[in-house]
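I am writing to request your help with a piece of structural work I have in hand. I am sending you one protein, given as its amino acid sequence and as whole-number tokens for its backbone shapes. Kindly check, if you would, that the fold set down in the tokens agrees with what the sequence suggests. You will find the record immediately after this paragraph:
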Amino acid sequence: MRTIRFKGLRIDCQGWVYGCLMINGQRSLISVQYSADVDDFDCHEVIPETVGQFTGLFDEDGKEIYEGDKLSAGESVVIIQNKGRGFEGKFINKSQLYDFPIQNNNYLHWKIIGNIHEK
């Protein structure tokens, strides 16, 4: 079964938070569960535009790859996008931009170098 998880930048500028996404009107919240105890969690408000979904894939260091992450392999840099029909990579440092579907073996030698929402 696929793990469904999200990350987003906290509105209080305290970095990324990872967990379950909840939408409450105009507010986006991510709940973080700290243990198996149902009551052991916190909710953090995040900037809605920064929310990205976990792709189910990992980079060469074993870090989870999320929508919006920038990956590098040698001279190539890719941004992960959700196109509604699945996640795709988009080369951003080539003279011709193009998208390609991502699969488990695509990112064995790629490394996360940031996210499109980080300065």
Notes: The chain has two domains: 6-50, 57-115. The mean pLDDT is 84. The domain at 57-115 is CATH 2.30.30 (SH3 type barrels.). Residues 71 and 77 are 6 Å apart (CA to CA).
